[in-house]
Automatic annotation (TrEMBL), chains A, B:
It holds the Pfam family GntR. Keywords: DNA-binding, Transcription, Transcription regulation. PROSITE patterns: HTH_GNTR. Signal peptide: none annotated. This is FadR family transcriptional regulator. It comes from Arthrobacter cavernae. One of its GO terms (molecular function) is DNA binding. Residues 1-73 form the HTH gntR-type domain.
Amino acid sequence: MRTHELVLHWIEKQLSDGQLLLGGRLPAERALAEQLQVSRTSVREAIRILEAMGVVRAGVGSGKDAGTVVIAEPASALGSALRLHVATQHLPVADIVETRALLESWAVARAKPDTPALAEAARLLEEMDAHAAVDDFLGLDVRFHVALAEAAGNAVVSTMMGSLREAIEGYAAALTANLPDWETTAARLRAEHRAILQAVNDGDGERAAELVAAHIHGFYREAGLGQAPD
Amino acid sequence: MRTHELVLHWIEKQLSDGQLLLGGRLPAERALAEQLQVSRTSVREAIRILEAMGVVRAGVGSGKDAGTVVIAEPASALGSALRLHVATQHLPVADIVETRALLESWAVARAKPDTPALAEAARLLEEMDAHAAVDDFLGLDVRFHVALAEAAGNAVVSTMMGSLREAIEGYAAALTANLPDWETTAARLRAEHRAILQAVNDGDGERAAELVAAHIHGFYREAGLGQAPD
DNA sequence: TAGATCATGTGGTCCAACCACATCAAGTAG
DNA sequence: CTACTTGATGTGGTTGGACCACATGATCTA
């Protein structure tokens, strides 16, 4: 077993034993190296991996933001990994879109009306009305859809939804170049968003699921999924 | 931007530009360090991250298995990340089970009969008849379910299915201690597996989806999901 | 009292050296 | 000529030490 894996397993055990909690700090790199009788390099490689997985965050200096702190951000971590595999063409973008539609349909079908997540989703819709620029709009769009997914109360589903969306965010932005008129599309997306949210708040999960699936597939079909942007 | 991130982005660009293909080799660590004008340490940290994401594999020595080679194993990589987040109790096991049931139901409902993946699934069932030990059985069980999921032809769904199953494999093994009699449960699981595969091969996706959801939830309910094993 | 300065501790980076390993080529004994 | 041994080469794995940038808090000073 390689040395950094030993460090990795030690830290994972600390986590699963509850000796290292969310928000807690790892020992300083030099201290941990001495404690485990390995080099600081090996400790650092282990921390790099945990950082890539969204389990810790490393900060220099001293005080609140300093040191290596345990966090819980699986979505961005999984998103990066998926993006790389999309880059190697091992995971087709079409499959990602299809999976995202599957997860999100399930989520909105089971979303509870009048939850904080839905209130946040409604707020994001207001904000989207004021931001017409493609990048701003898409950024808010991601947050709206993730908020929707969170309303179902399944952390794994919303995490995966977010990571899938993030993995192809750059791709989606590039696809907008294929659209005949962004303003027209944006107006349609806004209307669809409101209809989806309305259905969820009405407790009509079945209709919400249909609308969200049509919403997702509609955008990628219009933008020409699989075609290179001009 | 930190130095290892620079290396990471350089490699990601090589991948998305198609200059680095599946099975291809990265430049040697020392050569890459000189080429990018960074230290070997930073190159190594980048490679560690890619390795954790299942994008490359590092091998010592010379010849076929040597060097850093581009691979495509997202399932095990995502599985490790999910397992760590389960360890921090940020992702509940129940949510993982529910998500897995969702993905797998969808997959079997769309699985095409008479595909190579289903033939492999059938072969695995034969093998499971001969392996009664818990660990062997569960290992084959994972492969059976992944083979089933592959028959739907969506790489992202089967990848996520596999990673979810892997993330809680240790948990599932521990849960078997809660079962009153493993042999009885194993016999039931074998029968359910055959019924699922039969439904898929009959083209009855709807029935297959119902069976697989009942199969998954049934096991975890019987084993006492959420309860500590004795 | 208010500001400047220094000490401390953190992660970030780099370097030089050595190890373990696998392969291949050259040399050597048969 | 064959078969084995030996050494050279190139790979990632590991280590210790040095220095940097940064943020904070204590201390000194005007």
